[in-house]
């Protein structure tokens, strides 16, 4: 059952048969500091600040597809500002080596995007223990297809979808944005997904045939997801975003720590080089001394500021 939570009285009207309930306070120290910073601006009241950083409505556990007898869910956090125009959308894919992890339980980590006028969609996908590659990629593409199909109901702008992910989720964001119907990966019911306007790839693997763990050959996470069988390297290649770079590839913003021992910086460097050669707008932000995510607060602030400038420069937001 879809659970809806209403945040503001001026929210976009949606299906009336969905239950609503009040949202508990999620204000942590970082969010509080951001709110206080906004509140110092004389033209904003505290109430206005909260309304500009909180979703207008929340839809939890929405089923976007069923596969292998399993319902796959997503959460929807609608843009906070009231507008007659459809909102741009950030669709987020979590990390975890395609084997673990889950979509975030709240919208707190997406304040930057909400305050910029985005709606946010967070996606559950099949993990390697449920189904091997290409299942997770197909699910990611189906989530994009669902956004297109539900654009009118949720006031999404299907021409302004930004795919965003961290680690393995960065890989899925890239695949969601770089694939087309002609690549033969999409399942039939999810063909015709909207084109992605931009990708935010945070330290995701980009060429699975080249990501190694010491001298052990194929990376264990890749083996766990793809499988270990004769010819598996062909699937490694087919699941590599770098293989799909072309002139129509969406603009891509990449973040990577230069001391990342899980996904080496060379993975992002390779992708950026190919995007540049193809004439695709790309920006790489290398974090000095940074590992596999877990950056400090100041670095995170700079990353998200740069990400917003990048999507703004592409005309996705004003």
Automatic annotation (TrEMBL):
BD-FAE-like domain span: 74-275
Keywords assigned: Hydrolase
SUPFAM superfamilies, alphabetized: alpha/beta-Hydrolases
Annotated InterPro entries: AB_hydrolase_fold, BD-FAE-like_dom, GDXG_lipolytic_enzyme
Single GO MF descriptor: hydrolase activity
One Pfam assignment: BD-FAE
Record protein name field: Carboxylesterase type B
């Amino acid at each position: 059952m879809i659970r809806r939570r209403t945040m503001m009285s001026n929210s976009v009207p949606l299906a009336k048969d969905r239950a609503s309930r009040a949202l508990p306070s999620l204000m942590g120290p970082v969010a509080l500091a951001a709110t206080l910073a906004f509140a110092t601006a004389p033209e904003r009241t505290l109430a206005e600040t909260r309304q500009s950083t909180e979703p207008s409505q929340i839809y939890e556990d929405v089923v976007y597809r069923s596969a292998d007898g399993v319902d796959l869910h997503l959460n929807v956090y609608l843009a906070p500002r009231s507008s007659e125009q459809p909102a741009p959308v950030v669709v987020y894919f979590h990390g975890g080596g395609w084997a673990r992890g889950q979509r975030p339980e709240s919208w707190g980590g997406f304040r930057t995007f909400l305050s910029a006028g985005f709606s946010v969609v967070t996606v559950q996908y099949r993990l390697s223990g449920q189904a091997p590659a290409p299942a997770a990629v197909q699910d990611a593409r189906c989530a994009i297809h669902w956004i297109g199909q539900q654009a009118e109901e949720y006031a999404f702008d299907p021409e302004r979808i930004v795919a965003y992910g961290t680690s393995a989720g960065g890989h899925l964001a890239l695949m969601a944005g770089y694939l087309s119907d002609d690549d033969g990966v999409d399942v039939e019911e999810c063909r015709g997904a909207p084109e992605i306007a931009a990708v935010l790839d945070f330290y995701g693997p980009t060429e699975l045939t080249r990501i190694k763990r010491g001298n052990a050959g194929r990376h264990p996470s890749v083996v766990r997801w793809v499988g270990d069988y004769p010819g598996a390297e062909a699937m490694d290649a087919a699941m590599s975003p770098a293989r799909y770079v072309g002139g129509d590839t969406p603009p891509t913003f990449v973040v990577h720590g230069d001391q990342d021992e899980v996904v080496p910086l060379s993975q992002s460097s390779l992708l950026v080089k190919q995007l540049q050669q193809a004439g695709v707008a790309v920006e790489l932000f290398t974090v000095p001394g940074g590992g596999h995510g877990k950056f400090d607060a100041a670095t995170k602030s700079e990353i998200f500021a740069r990400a917003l400038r990048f999507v703004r420069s592409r005309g996705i937001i004003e």
